[in-house]
Amino acid sequence: MPTETFEFQVEARQLLQLMIHSVYSNKDVFLRELVSNASDALDKLRLAALRHDGLDADTSDLHIEIEADPDARTLTVRDNGIGMSYDEVGKLIGTIANSGTAEFLKELREAQDAAGAEGLIGQFGVGFYSGFMVADEMTLVTRRAGESSGTRWSSRGEGTYTLETVDDAPQGTAVTLHLKPADPENQLHDYTSTWTIKEIVKRYSDFITWPIRLVPGTKGEGEDTPEPETLNSMKALWARSRDEVSDDEYHELYKHVSHDWRDPLETIRLQAEGTFEYQALLFLPEHAPHDLFTRDFRRGLQLYVKRVLIMDDCEALLPPYLRFVKGVVDAQDLSLNVSREILQQDRHIRMIQRRLTKKVLASVKEMKAADSAKYATFWREFGAVVKEGLLGDPDNRDAILAVASFASTHSEDEPTTLQQYVERMKDGQDDIYYMTGESRQSIENSPHMEAFRARGVEVLLLTDPVDEVWVDAVGEFDGKRLRSVAKGEIDLDVQGDEQTEGEREKQAEEYAGLLGWMKEQLGEDVKDVRLSTRLTVSPACVVSDAHDLTPALENMYRAMGQ
Ligand code: ADP
Ligand code: MG
User: Fold this and answer.
1) pTM recorded for the entire structure
2) Cβ proximity of 201 and 249 under 8 Å
């Protein structure tokens, strides 16, 4: 087959441009990305072999190799992993298959500073392209395990790339960078220097579970060919004690597992001893990904069995409302070729799930007590997901409510917990009041709020879709009912309310005629017309019965066709 030339997809081209005119100050991380991809490819091959996929592939010495050629100014990262087919190369390398990319690029253009842009890029797995920060040309030769011919991909990172079929490619993938001239002032180091390579691997990729070998340079006269040197310790961070591992090392593991370029917000460790032994290293990201609420959201929780990765994206380890948690769980006594279906039923896995759930919620609680800014970030990014647990996980309801906070009329910018709300309740106030809606502003403008504002009664302002549902499911907190200000009869009989029972009866008599007339006029459209204590300015408002759907829910069900 002749060499074919293709154009990068528009989004891919935009990202490449960003890479070439790099927004990253730290260019060394390109090597971390290539090693990370190589490591993923080795994991995938071993998983395929474990599942007996009938691959005709050599898995006897899986490893990563780095080879530098100072004269040609090239650097090659090679693995003998799963490799890619001709079509896969075009699909995986030539396009960005992420649905949120357009949205992301828009945000990127709006990002005010380089640091913001750098953070944003990290979410989109542009790992491979980062090579163009240091190279003016990249070549990739790959052969998918089990296939007979390979593929050569090459690009200068501009508008196009070429693809051709090659016959003699070894199994796996080799990525060769044609390096730009070193320019230390712009953080562009000499990446053919053995010392520099060792440094970078040690710093970013030490924990990688596959050997990363440095191919020795050409031998001198009369010398023996030197042995390749393994650069990484391959120590599983989760199996080491806390004081042996630096925060930076944890953070690099997080980046490898999550494909995020930023540091995590929080690191959570758990080592369970006893009959069923396992270790967990979990991370809370700092930012919610764009696709968190979509069906194809990929979790980043990996399951290992005795240091061997057996499942990426293992959904059985945590409940859906903690799906944003990234990390590694390494269990001692599981079968290596256990399937997803079996995992869901497994008693031990369910035990792990319960324990990890409690641990994550406890960590958030600690964070809340110790570092309110960090907690605020966490809740802003993930609160809407965590609240799903109020419906799905009744056992942990109290633990979730203890870490939940809500916007409230009490303060413009400080959210409140339910506990704090209860402590501020007025004498004579029996219930916790809330109102749901699209935004704080739309709720505050609602006539339902008038009486509460006038009497200084605090109202929780709930704006996440899930809020419509959990308030009913939970029903009460600390013996106080959760009540919508837009539903049923509201009797704001708190202190300072001047109207007496007698006055109210008198008023009802006076207006009986008018109310009757209005009821007649509105006919079938309303159930009842009542005098109200809720309003101070607006003449009238529409109220649902206590057990009716709220308008927002009604809209939601209607949209779903129910
Ligand atoms: P990510 O690793 O976040 O998916 P990358 O840009 O780093 O994004 O890589 C894109 C895709 O290209 C990978 O998901 C993988 O499918 C493929 N790929 C990259 N490098 C390799 C490799 N060494 N071996 C096999 N596949 C690879
Ligand atoms: Mg990658």
Assistant:
1) 0.81
2) no
